[in-house]
Amino acid sequence: MNLKEISKKIMKGDFGNLLNLHPSEVAKMLGPIPFEISIQGFLSLPESKQSKVFPYLDLLLQKKMIKSLSKVEATFILNDLSSDDRFILYSSLRGVELSTYIKLLNEINKDSLHDILGYPEDSVARLINTDFATITKEATIAEAIDHLRKHHKDSEAANVIYVVSKDGKLIDDIPVRRFVLNDPSKKVSEIFDGSYVSLKMTDKKEDAIAKFKEYDRTVLPVTNNENILLGVLTVDDVLDIAEQRDTKQIQNFGGVEGLDYPYVKTSFFSLVKKRATWLIVLFIGEMLTATAMGYFDVEISKAVVLALFVPLIISSGGNSGSQAATLIIRAMALNELTIKDWWFVMKREILSGLTLGLILGSIGFIRIAIWQNLHFYNYGTHWFLLALTIFFSLIGIIMWGTLSGSMIPILLKKLKLDPATSSAPLVATLVDVTGLIIYFSIAAVILKGTIL
Amino acid sequence: MNLKEISKKIMKGDFGNLLNLHPSEVAKMLGPIPFEISIQGFLSLPESKQSKVFPYLDLLLQKKMIKSLSKVEATFILNDLSSDDRFILYSSLRGVELSTYIKLLNEINKDSLHDILGYPEDSVARLINTDFATITKEATIAEAIDHLRKHHKDSEAANVIYVVSKDGKLIDDIPVRRFVLNDPSKKVSEIFDGSYVSLKMTDKKEDAIAKFKEYDRTVLPVTNNENILLGVLTVDDVLDIAEQRDTKQIQNFGGVEGLDYPYVKTSFFSLVKKRATWLIVLFIGEMLTATAMGYFDVEISKAVVLALFVPLIISSGGNSGSQAATLIIRAMALNELTIKDWWFVMKREILSGLTLGLILGSIGFIRIAIWQNLHFYNYGTHWFLLALTIFFSLIGIIMWGTLSGSMIPILLKKLKLDPATSSAPLVATLVDVTGLIIYFSIAAVILKGTIL
């Protein structure tokens, strides 16, 4: 039976097939249907499966379900969640709700939740899983295996075993396969090399992504400053945070504040709010263009033809600026580029701007020449000087665009601000307003005594 | 000794410390220094370490090094690479170079390379690792462990064992921890459940990312259409392709063709080429604004004041368009939204556009009223009608921006084109040109008989 048929049966209240599906598939079935049906489907599952399915539901549905469950059911599920999933749920709760559900946790889970909440929001601590397996180096492999069988169920947590000292300090990590590949009578100390890669609780999530990529790991231990092992971070969480970071960056580039939920799950009001903020900031910035244009109203009334090219000219500056900003911001986000490289970038972008300006300037020049000589539009007797004005303005504006587009992100980073969030409005406003000034100044020089 | 001190020693030709570093750290040390020194450092390592370090070097350096190695050294390294790393290197080679280095491979590696090259570039096949461990279900755990010890070294490949039939068809995957957690006399068939998640060779890389996220796996088996196991895909490669996809998307949003290498590694010529293409396309599209403005030259000469607001008006349309496009494109890339949702999106975006338009329109109106009444600028006796024109134009243009920004990506996807690549220039041109027409048409209606 395929998923579509199962879905139909579910809508009719027949939940038998859910039992044989992977927890993530069950969550997929229960997500988009009316809540009254999905909660029934959820409750039809045995308890052990419920707590496997629960973390795959989206956050809004998780909250709704927990509220509809009996206290006994909720207690079971909340305590059975892995610590990272539990943390994500709890950190989305507020006020009375938060304290109500904290009361349902057992002492161990309550403590670990409180510990995690003490760390900054962008720190690795907020993502750790506190379910991990430890042994001492004096144990033999056989003893370690025995310990594993007694204390760990068949979960991802048993893939890597951590060797710790008596006071809980991390000594090494051993992939469980090494137990299989070696003689059981060997001691743990014989099969490790004492070299491991770890994260600190206070490390930034960003740095965790970089470390996973650099060392090609699937799980990394997380310690406090005394090197005491407090949890592990798994690569699936890293994949999620990398995707969230990129989504936020992409939305920032598009001039939207990063959304907290997917587009379809974001309420209309919150969507408009996130967009309005930026649009208003950009709009107020762009108001300066009206002011700048006001200074040149005499020139425009003398030579209306100058106004015709205003949109073309400033959009070219804006495009070259956003190209440069995008390249630099992404390169900095991936640590390919640091603030120190500013001089390398500046030289490169001035030269790029010159080249690109020459190309677009020539096209602009040719456009006017063709339109004039094929009589598509009459730019007047001084069309050649006008074409020259466009040519030099484009070079100037595009160079200015690449330069400010590349330098503003670096400057913002230097000032410890997030370049992805703040660059777009600054670059757009600066390039547009300055672009107008460059254009009309060049026009004043070239066209003085003829049409101006 | 910290990495900085080691780096200093390396520059002096003292490579002793490289031995104790993690392969990725060695690669980090050898990457940015002059090639003559880095090749010496590389050759100072024992062969087994060389082939561990090699995959961490960046692609350009890999190629340079292989060329500088003796035939014997190159043969060893090329055959010792994991199949996915080998494939990445070979697929960057062309012509004589490619055939020269293919000759250095042994028969097995040559065959698997050829097999992989037969699949499309965006398929999972291009990323698989052909080093994996298999057993039959009739074996006992003890036999399976024995087999592992004989045939597999201590590498990631031994983390999951695949149960296959006699003709190589995939039956199940068993994490190696399950061997440890169960009694060695049990048969393999007793500890598996026959339910597994797998990828097909022809699956798109995109779909692989989604599957890893959905099932929270660190490794997935890859089969052909007959379900015969051909390789495995590991999550570290998935992390890389997700990041590459996002980088390309981000660059596309910024109006740049996706770069093949990081910004700092991309040659000046190729950087300018990738940027020029888009700038020219956008420029030619934006030329239509000059044509559109040409139609209204009489209006502009009668009321120069109208020209002053052109940059403000069209940038608002552009910004609201790019906001909408960004949100929709990203939501589609993450499968949160499909083409079928177009009506939901359209209703939402029209309403968003109206709300945002009312907000910005009011700000624009107030701006003119204040400037006029505080004598910052004199818009003439009919300033109130001008302010009304700006108000209604902003509403119209912003609604048009959100509508086309959201619908063009969906339309492009429907036409099987990549929305991330093609939306930006289309949206920008359409919104700017149409924006001008909306603005001057509204002006014609409101201002007719007064200043027009």
Write the layout of secondary structure elements.
Two copies of one chain form a homodimer.
Chain A: H1 3-11, H2 23-30, H3 35-44, H4 47-53, H5 59-68, H6 71-80, H7 83-91, H8 95-103, H9 107-117, E1 133-135, H10 141-151, E2 160-164, E3 170-175, H11 177-181, E4 199-200, H12 205-215, E5 219-223, E6 229-234, H13 235-253, H14 268-295, H15 297-302, H16 304-308, H17 310-333, H18 342-373, H19 383-414, H20 419-447
Parallel strand pairs in A: 1-2, 4-5
Antiparallel strand pairs in A: 2-3, 5-6
Helix pairs in contact in A: 2-4, 7-9, 12-13, 14-20, 17-19, 17-20, 18-19, 19-20
Overall description:
Two copies of one chain form a homodimer. Chain A is mainly alpha-helical. Chain A folds into three domains: 3-118, MgtE N-terminal fold; 133-234, CBS-domain, CATH 3.10.580; 263-447, Tetracycline Repressor, domain 2, CATH 1.10.357. Chain A has helices at 3-11, 23-30, 35-44, 47-53, 59-68, 71-80, 83-91, 95-103, 107-117, 141-151, 177-181, 205-215, 235-253, 268-295, 297-302, 304-308, 310-333, 342-373, 383-414, 419-447; strands at 133-135, 160-164, 170-175, 199-200, 219-223, 229-234. In chain A, the strands form two sheets. In chain A, strands 1-2-3 form a three-stranded mixed beta sheet. The first copy, chain A, has a three-stranded mixed beta sheet with strand order 4-5-6. In chain A, a hairpin with a 5-residue loop joins strand 5 and strand 6 (229-234). In chain A, helix 7 (83-91) packs across helix 9, helix 14 (268-295) runs parallel beside helix 20 (419-447) and helix 19 runs antiparallel to helix 20. Chain A is elongated, with a radius of gyration of 31 Å. The N and C termini of chain A lie far apart (78 Å). The relative contact order of chain A is 0.06.
